[in-house]
Amino acid sequence: MTTTSINAVGFCAHYSKQGDWAFQRALALARNRDLQMNIFHFVQDPYEQDTQEARNLSKKDLDRIVVEREKELRLYYDDKLGDWLKAGFRLCEDNGWTELHRCICNREFQVLILPYPNYGSKFAGRLLTSFANAMTCPTILVGPTRPDEVYLNSPAVLMADKLLVTDTAWSSVEAPSAAQGEIANQNAKGLD
Fold it and tell me: How many distinct helices (H) and strands (E) make up the chain?
């Protein structure tokens, strides 16, 4: 059996409490294993359903938005990184599997950590859980109700001890039905 060599952690930026929880988990893994942490952000938020907005912009408007989002991203995460200097920022122009797959092939990350905003969340137009299950690299979903609520895809399950998740009651990623997600969201609202 071959062991996956981990040199970098990928994290997809998301401005939410779940995004902050996922960021903290990614940073803790990077610090503990002395890994590069690459923070990915997208021209069009992959968690949003409508991806036509960016396609309809002029080149000038698109360039302006990219600069604004890059500045916002760096201001938001620079403080959170503290003294950790092994971090990079990467703009993904495509919001789906293709761009992240390129990053895997280029060895920009070997482990991907994604915020799980709510049950039934979509990423790049498909259920986030389905997206995570389709990833060939270890993928960790964090949330949606607590920072220690962690879901692992199959490759991540095989190396859970290396991913610093042994201190939490993690679960395997399963694609819940829309009805199950709605029930879980209603229950989570009662916890706030």
Answer: 7, 9
Helices 17-33, 59-81: inter-axial angle, 10-degree rounding = 60
* Closest of 86, 93, 91, 98 to residue 9, by C-alpha: 86
Pairing state of beta strands 150-152 and 122-123?
unpaired
Pick the CATH number of 8-191 from 3.40.50.620, 3.40.190.170, 3.40.50.300, 3.30.70.20: 3.40.50.620
Token couple for 145: 């109700």
d(CA 52, CA 44): 9
pLDDT in tens, 70-115: 999 999 999 999 999 999 998 887 766 678 888 888 889 999 999 9
CA dihedral 167, 137, 120, 20 (to 10 degrees): 50
Residue 25 and residue 1: Cα distance in Å, rounded? 27
CA 126 to chain CA centroid, nearest Å:
14
pLDDT tens digits, one per residue of 16-40: 999 999 999 999 999 999 999 999 9
Phi, psi of 133 (to 5 degrees): -65, -30
Look up the pTM and report it.
0.85
What gap in Å lies between CA 88 and CA 74, rounded to an integer? 10
- Go through 122-135 and write b for each residue having 16 or more CB atoms within 10 A of its CB, e for each that does not: bbbeebbbebbbeb
